[in-house]
Write a structure and sequence with these properties.
mainly alpha; 1 helix
């Protein structure tokens, strides 16, 4: 029995060793697969981390650009409002200037008509003056002639006065 027990123990030890060996081989292959999966997942995770970092950088850049664009839009809105106000003021000035121009144009036409009337009157008066000057000259000649006759009549005797006429 001692031999049987030793043999039994030997078989048991061999079976246990074979079991541990089988389990070791099984776990070694399983560990290798798990390790390969871990390495693949780790590599994928690094790639995802890089992509996430790039996406985060792109997002931050987009946010900065958006904020810059928003600031520009606000600035342009202020400029647009200012230019709108200036445009309204300029339109008002233009409207008043056009009204003033219309008033001045009408006034100019009135003055032109008045000047035309005045020039016509001046021409008529100049003609009248010329006519009157001619009459004055004729009358001055008549006066001179009559003065000469009066002088002749005063200086001559009544009987000789027929020569003064």
């Amino acid at each position: 029995m001692g031999k049987r027990i030793n043999m039994f123990l030997l078989i048991m030890v061999l079976l246990v060793l074979l079991g541990f060996g089988g389990v070791s081989v099984y776990y070694q292959y399983t560990f290798k697969d798990v390790n390969d999966n871990y390495n693949n997942i780790s590599t994928n995770m690094e790639i995802c981390a890089q992509n996430l970092s790039q996406t985060a950088d792109a997002l931050n850049t987009a946010i900065r650009n958006l904020n810059s664009t928003e600031t520009d839009i606000k600035k342009y809105n202020v400029i647009y409002e200012d230019l709108g106000d200036e445009l309204k003021e300029t339109e008002d000035e233009l409207s008043s200037t056009q009204a003033e121009l219309t008033r001045v144009t009408v006034q100019k036409e009135v003055y032109k008509k008045q000047m035309d009337i005045a020039f016509t009157q001046i021409k008529n008066l100049n003609k009248s003056i010329s006519s009157l000057e001619t009459q004055v000259t004729s009358l001055e000649r008549d006066i001179d002639r009559l003065n000469d006759r009066v002088s002749c009549l005063k200086n001559t005797d009544d009987s000789e006065e027929s020569g003064c006429i």
